Amino acid sequence: MQPRPNPRLSSQAMAFILAGGRGSRLKELTDKRAKPAVYFGGKARIIDFALSNALNSGIRKMAVATQYKAHSLIRHMQRGWGFFRAERNEYLDILPASQRVSENKWYMGTADAVTQNIDIVDSYEVKYVIILAGDHVYKMDYEIMLRQHAESGADVTVGCLTVPRADASAFGVMDVDRTGRITRFLEKPEDPPGMPGDPDNSLASMGIYVFDWDFLRDRLIADAEDGNSSHDFGHDIIPEIVKSGRAMAHRFSESCVMSGLESEPYWRDVGTIDAFWRANIDLTDFVPKLDIYDNAWPIWTYAELVPPAKFIHDEEDRRGSAVSSLVAGDCIVSGSEIRNSLLFTGVRTHSYSALEYVVALPYVTVNRKAQLRNCVLDRGVVIPDGLVVGADPEEDARWFRRSAGGVVLITQAMIEARAAALE
To answer: Per the database record, which ranges form the Glucose-1-phosphate adenylyltransferase/Bifunctional protein GlmU-like C-terminal hexapeptide domain (predicted)?
Structure first.
């Protein structure tokens, strides 16, 4: 009798996605939604990348911990991720902070978010738990990381990016030996250590951790009883394991999913207005750094039932057109010129208007003769006739939020405040 092949470890694992953070550096974009619920790429939300990676890796048990202004995030998951079937041993549980431990205790840290749901993780009866952040954009096969974890006998395996040493001070940095064992975990060090054999680069934590559940369960219970702990993976759990256990680094380059079009592993923290705008605009490049058209590794999301995009008028100076741009369904480009821009679902642009390097979130309306450049338009914004943005930095900053990189964020509240002031 032939021996059965080893099953994928993902079938014995669950993904626990931490999605409770606001993402305050995104300013008004997170006034109404948590950072993982922020729109990205024309159709998706940021959290769809972590969830899609887990699903594509073969993981069918997931939990998402939410906290800050979670309604839009929960609604998105209910609408777009409701296809898991319990009779097939598939689960996606949404775990809002709900004072399960005491009436005055919400999630106190990333580790505490798991600790408060130990009973739920126990009910999954899994061997491995992979802890994920719900607010990064990347494609990764977690099965490869799970394999390394199991084969190395590690207590924890930490997903790591290779970053230039000069930039590594913004991250938690791993100091590793030549076997990949983590010897020190340094939080935003002034002088980051280089990598063995590569002193110009450092290994930075991605906030992705793989544990055997039995081991992590014991650590979380001990951490919960420590009055000096901040109950955080990066600050408490991981450094303690580095000191007293066996922590191994997993390099993202070994499990990054690339279709053949990408030239290098792609990972982005789109946590600032500039980074968010740039990552979206990058998708309009002739050969983008991230291939979202890869059917072998799709980014699953809530697909609204909407009509196709439409381009109307064909007159001089009044031609509906889009060049080097992504235009989602239900958009009507009416006598407008769109260049190097990304329009989400339901955007309307009217005659004689022009958009260049603009990220327009769903259901934005751009009225006649508006001229917009280097902008992020929040959901539902109505741009008035003739508004010019991107030509005069001082005028832009007077009414709207202008980033250090020169990107202008516009919300409907800002438009209304401007209108009231000009009356």
So the answer is: 307-410
pTM of structure: 0.94
pLDDT of residue 187: 84
> What are the distances in angstroms from CA 357 to CA 50, 326, 404?
27, 11, 16
Mean of the pLDDT values across residues 20-37?
Answer: 91
* Beta pairing partners, 410: 377
According to DSSP H, which parts of 170-283 are helical?
213-224, 238-244, 273-282
Nearest alpha-carbon partner for 339 in 295, 303, 390: 390
CA distance 154 to 250: 11
Average pLDDT value for the chain: 94
Tokens at 407, concatenated: 């990107």
- Sequence-distant (≥ 6) Cβ neighbours of residue 163 within 8 angstroms: 171, 201, 202, 203, 204
CB 231 within 8 A of CB 223: yes
Task: Report d(CA 331, CA 377) in Å as an integer.
Answer: 15
In angstroms, the Cα distances linking 383 to 125, 319, 368 are: 52, 19, 9
- Only one residue has tokens 């209304």, namely 416
According to the annotation, is 107 in a ligand binding site?
Answer: yes
Q: Is 187 annotated as a binding residue?
A: yes
Q: Is the dihedral of CA 184, 190, 196, 201 positive or negative?
A: positive
Per the CB < 8 A criterion, the answer to whether 270 and 179 are in contact is no
Helices (H) and strands (E) in the chain, counts: 10, 29
How does pLDDT run across 259-307, given as a tens digit for each residue? Answer: 988 889 999 999 999 999 999 999 999 999 999 999 999 999 998 899 9
∠ CA(237), CA(242), CA(248), 5° rounding? 105
Element (H, E) at 342: strand 342-343
Structure tokens at 408: 């202008």
Residue 256 DSSP one-character state: B
Sign of CA dihedral 81, 289, 129, 254: positive
